[in-house]
Design brief:
The complex is a heterotrimer of chains A (about 325), B (about 450) and C (about 160). By secondary structure, chain A is α+β, with helices and mostly antiparallel strands. Chain A has helices at about 50-60, 90-115, 145-150, 220-235, 290, 295-305, 315-330; strands at about 1-15, 25-30, 35-40, 70-75, 125, 130-135, 135-140, 160-165, 180-195, 200-210, 245, 245-250, 265-270. Chain A starts with a strand and ends with a helix. In chain B, a hairpin with a 5-residue loop joins β14 and β15. In chain B, about 60% of the residues are buried. Chain B has helices spanning about 1-15, 40-45, 80-85, 135-145, 160, 185-190, 235-245, 275-285, 295-300, 340-350, 380-400, 405-410, 430-440; strands at about 15-20, 60-65, 70-80, 90-95, 120, 125-130, 145-150, 175-185, 195-200, 215-220, 225-230, 255, 290, 305-315, 320-335, 360-365. Chain B has a seven-stranded mixed sheet, sandwiched between helices. Chain C folds into two domains: about 1-75, Roll (Ubiquitin-like (UB roll)); about 85-155, Orthogonal Bundle (DNA polymerase, domain 1), CATH 1.10.150.120. In chain C, about 35% of the residues lie in helices and about 15% in strands. Chain C has helices spanning about 20-30, 85-90, 100-115, 120-125, 140-155; strands spanning about 1-5, 10-15, 50, 55, 70. In chain C, β1 and β2 (about 10-15) form a beta hairpin. In chain C, α2 (about 85-90) packs across α5 and α3 packs across α5 (about 140-155). Chain C is globular and about 45 Å long. The termini of chain C are far apart. Classes of the chains: A alpha+beta (about 325), B alpha+beta (about 450), C alpha+beta (about 160). Chains A and B meet through β1, α1, β4, β9 and β10 of A and β1, β8, β9, α7 and β12 of B. β4 of chain A pairs antiparallel with β1 (about 15-20) of chain B, so a sheet runs across the interface. Chain C: Pathway: Alkaloid degradation; nicotine degradation. Chain C: Keywords: 2Fe-2S, Iron, Iron-sulfur, Metal-binding, Oxidoreductase. Chain C: This is Purine hydroxylase delta subunit apoprotein.
Chain lengths: ~325, ~450, ~160
């Protein structure tokens, strides 16, 4: 028999290393004569998309199409510390560092532009890679020409930005004024069906609402929610590295099961965008929070479906079958 | 050599990502838009270079001989037969590298190679680095290394590890670190509560299972005294620092270049191939490559912590949380890795996003002889949520309340105070997420 | 021993041992590093190629078995400047995160659409079920294959093949 169940979970995640750790990110931007804008950051892109995020932020500030950008990342000898790609921190930390570098660059474009046009900032327009006087848009110089002229002065059209928010280490009672830079919140409802003969959970729909301040790239945020949720569901219903007497019994992908394309549910998302955080354009981190609600929402859905609470993970088909049998025997 | 330097130059350039974005050319706003991923073109064509995709002429291959028992003293290691395998260039054991220091993310408790007289503490500990002309030769030689050990009690359970008579896995004892949380008056609040619910939760070992296993290539640039390492890490400069201190080099002498990373999820925070690669490259003077198999990756590298969570939660008649007592005991396995941070971060989030004035908590990260546990997406709070969100559901049912209403009643708002005493001064829209998800799912008291 | 095979339309003659895996032959001898190794046991699909029209885990195929075979790897579809509609759909749908599974996914999508140009969502899910992705939760990969089906239908025929 198939039994329907629905469960809810709401979670929070304090992101950044916090706890007084000297957590920070440094980034730089350089405009080159050969029509390239180079962003340098050590922020590791593990697939989450920090490369694209920082390009979008810099493009927005510098008012130029993302096509002109190139990101140099991942070389200790070419980039300064950007901190770890962990703790859901890169959008917030490196995003802010790049934003500050871009703002510094924009200010420099105004500075050099005002020298070039012998004018003052309010009379100058900067957009689409061009610098000109408002009253004479046809007489412009491009960012690339400006880079050339700055080079001729023996300088570089380059800017650096960093972000270094303060947090405090908790005392012996775990107390401090500011332990984490900010919190991301997420609520999720999961609908399932359980086959009471096999104990197999069929994942139907997942509804998510995330308080993320601002989505720099909504589609990539959805990708994080879907990917994180599926990892959380894997934790909830199948993943288990079995270590007995110190030895792993299921080392390898034959016996360590993770969700496949036929296992995963359908998704609906709502992004709560209040733009009220101190991250770039009000953004907060989303990476880890997207995983956390899935296992408990699933556990609550399982209870809703069959009236059994599971306190141990994963909630595997064999555990469900066993619990249903015990329930039947006791009733 | 010219050919090789040309190829090296290519690899230095490969990790720059040029953004080519269609569809937004007309727009002047880029934040908040679905700009296509800059690295997607390289990834759909197979052009993206991951660590394992890098090869040099004249390159050697490494295999690592690992522990034969989860907790044992190494008595003897015999590499004589292995050395005779055709194509073997070098077999490096602990006595060849006496100056090399231990490494580790928070506590430097991981040995680079186990020396005779020292202990192996889990199945992933390295005993020897085998370097050969081919992968096959390296593997064959590795399997011919003979090891004698004196077996010790294998501690598989953190509760056993915490007992007085348990042998110490590390010299300072098995409890790596303990943290506390204390706010308000928990005992009085429980006495005055209408309902008190106590449960014990248990989570499991999980592998982050990024699609790409740990892999890397290294080259020693003798002229500049710099070892170049192409391998993934989630934190370039931290890995650089740890490798440098371990090898007693300056930071500038260790250059880490990050190729495309085939997923991480916390698993690539720890050092994996890096130090062994550097040692082999420096000793042989030739480019070297080390790629873990999936099995090796699962046995050797970090896991999500199994955490035992004991939650005692009180509510009053009106459905407001009154008190919360929690205990987190995390099995951090043989080495600390991120464990000292994971377990208490979980505890700091023990109540979820809910107001609760009285709190008491304790967390322990504990050594065992299991594969070490470290960072994985959620970092202790995923385990915590499994416990606190079931507590919330159970209490809602006992109160005869809609679980969503119960959550709304207790949810954080602006100026709420977290278990750490942090006042939430901005960007607290947790309530909105509940209301929105109720709308989205057509929530009717929990039933569809 | 000597084998002859056609890889991405080009005939190649190669010297192999009986133990060489097709995966290593493609990656190391032919430099086709778009073919990835994820598990070495035929479970994850990262090393997927199309061999004689069938999806094949190249880590399980001894090279001699590929004698006279016709093989397509991701490099045989489109280039950066001239993407195959399936590759283009993966980019546009936001289906790419770390990218390690993507060559295999793209080929699984191609194989499915070659046989079934108008698949249902369920058929797409089954068509991709031999390929593990750890980043995306599959949703956008499924979208990408559905999008590719639409694109290919409009084009009428697969001109890049």
């Amino acid at each position: 028999m198939k039994k329907f169940g629905r469960g809810m979970a709401t979670i929070m995640f304090g992101f950044g290393y916090g706890e007084g750790f000297p957590d920070h990110s440094i980034a730089s931007i350089e405009i080159k004569e050969d029509e390239r804008i180079v962003i340098r950051t050590a922020a590791a892109d593990v697939g989450q998309g920090v490369i694209t995020t920082v390009i979008q932020i810099a493009a927005e500030i510098l008012r130029i199409n993302p096509n002109y950008f190139e990101v140099v990342q991942g070389d200790t000898h070419k980039t300064k510390n950007s901190g770890s790609t962990s703790a859901t921190r890169q959008t917030y930390f490196t995003g802010n560092a790049v934003k500050k570098a871009a703002e510094d660059m924009l200010a420099n474009l105004y500075h050099y532009g005002s020298l070039e046009f012998r004018s003052n900032h309010p009379e100058i327009a900067i957009e689409d890679g061009k610098i000109y006087m408002y009253d004479d848009p046809d007489d412009y110089i491009t960012y690339w020409e400006m880079a050339e002229r700055v080079k001729e002065r023996g300088e570089k059209l380059e800017a650096e930005g960093s972000f270094f928010p303060v947090t405090y280490s908790p005392d012996e009672n775990g107390q401090a004024d500011k332990v984490y830079v900010a919190y991301t919140f997420l609520s999720q409802v999961i609908d399932i069906e359980i086959d009471t003969d096999t104990g197999i959970i069929d994942l139907l729909d997942v509804y998510s609402a995330i308080d993320l301040g601002k989505a720099i790239n909504p589609k990539n945020v959805e990708g994080q929610i879907e990917g994180g949720t599926v990892q959380g569901l894997g934790m909830g219903m199948m993943e288990d590295q079995v270590i007995r007497n110190g030895k792993t019994l299921n080392a390898g992908m034959t016996d360590y099961l993770v969700p496949t394309s036929v296992d995963v549910p359908k998704f609906k998302h709502y992004l709560v965008e209040e733009e009220d955080s101190e991250g770039p354009f009000g953004a907060k981190g989303v990476g880890e929070p997207t995983l956390i609600a899935a296992a408990p929402a699933l556990a609550n859905a399982v209870y809703d479906a069959i009236g059994v609470r599971f306190f141990d993970l994963p909630i595997s088909p064999s555990k469900i079958k066993k619990a249903l049998k015990e329930k039947e025997e006791n009733s | 050599m010219t050919d090789q330097s040309k190829r090296i130059k290519d690899y230095f350039c490969k990790h720059t990502t040029r953004c080519t974005i269609e569809g937004v050319k007309k727009s002047k706003r880029f934040v908040g838009h679905d700009v296509l991923k800059a690295d997607a073109w390289d990834k759909v064509t197979g052009d993206a270079v991951y660590p394992d995709d890098i090869s040099f002429d004249d390159m050697l291959y490494i295999k690592i001989k690992r522990a034969v028992h989860p907790h044992a003293i190494l008595k003897d290691i015999d590499i004589s037969r292995a050395k005779k395998v055709q194509g073997v260039v070098d077999i490096i054991v602990a006595e060849d590298i006496p100056d090399v220091r231990q490494f580790g993310l928070i506590i430097r408790d991981q040995p680079v190679l186990i020396a005779p007289g020292e202990k192996m503490r889990y199945m992933g500990d390295a005993l020897a680095i085998v370097v050969a002309e081919t992968k096959e030769a390296a593997k064959k030689a590795r399997d011919l290394i003979k090891v004698k050990v004196e077996e010790l009690e294998v501690i598989t359970d953190p509760f056993r590890a915490m007992e007085d008579d348990a042998p110490n896995i590390h010299p300072d004892g098995n409890i790596v670190i303990t943290h506390h949380l204390n706010r308000g008056d928990v005992d009085t609040a429980f006495k005055d509560s209408a309902i008190v619910e106590e449960n014990r939760y248990q989570t499991q070992f999980i592998d982050q299972l990024p699609m790409q296993n740990e892999a890397g290539v290294a080259l020693y640039d003798e002229r500049h005294g710099v070892v170049d390492i192409w391998a993934a890490t989630q934190w370039l400069h931290d890995t650089q620092a740890d490798v440098a201190q371990s090898l007693r080099l300056s930071k500038d002498q260790v250059r880490i270049i990050q190729p495309t990373i085939g997923g991480a999820f916390g698993k690539k925070e720890d050092v994996s191939v890096h130090i062994h690669l550097a040692i082999a490259a420096m000793r042989t003077g030739r480019p070297v490559k080390l790629c873990f198999t999936r099995e090796e990756s699962m046995i050797t590298q970090s896991k999500r912590h199994p955490i035992t969570i004991i939650n005692k939660t009180g509510v009053d008649r009106d459905g407001y949380l009154t008190a919360w007592e929690t205990k987190f005991i995390g099995d951090t396995g043989a080495y600390a890795s991120s464990g000292p941070a994971v377990v208490h971060k979980g505890m700091y989030h023990a109540t979820g996003p809910y107001n609760c004035p009285n709190l008491r908590g304790v967390s322990h990260a504990v050594y065992t002889n299991n594969t070490y546990a470290g960072a994985m997406r959620g970092f202790g709070t995923a385990q915590g949520a499994f416990a606190y969100e079931q507590q919330m559901d159970i209490l809602a049912h006992k109160l005869n309340m809609d679980p969503a209403e119960f959550r709304l009643k207790n949810i954080y708002k602006k100026d709420s105070i977290t278990p750490n005493g942090q006042q939430l001064t901005h960007s607290v829209n947790a309530e909105e997420t509940i209301k929105r998800v109720m709308e989205l799912s057509d929530w009717k008291g929990g039933r569809k | 021993m000597q084998i002859t095979l056609t890889v991405n339309g080009e005939q190649r003659e190669l010297e192999v041992t009986p133990y060489t895996r097709l995966l290593d032959l493609l990656r190391e001898d032919l430099g086709l590093t778009g073919v990835k190794e994820g598990c070495g046991k035929g479970e994850c699909g990262a090393c997927t190629v199309i061999m004689n029209g069938e999806l094949t885990a190249s880590c399980l195929v001894p090279a001699p078995q590929a004698d006279q075979a016709e093989i397509i790897t991701v490099e045989g579809l489109g280039t950066r400047d001239n993407l195959h509609p399936i590759q283009e759909s993966f980019v546009e749908a936001g289906a790419v995160q770390c990218g390690y599974c993507i060559p295999g996914m793209v080929l699984a999508g191609k194989r499915l659409l070659d046989e079934n140009p108008k698949p249902t969502e369920k058929e797409v899910r089954y068509g991709l079920s031999g390929n593990i992705c750890r980043c995306t939760g599959y949703a956008k990969i499924i979208d990408a294959v559905m999008l590719a089906a639409d694109k290919l239908a409009v084009e009428g025929s697969d001109s890049n093949d």
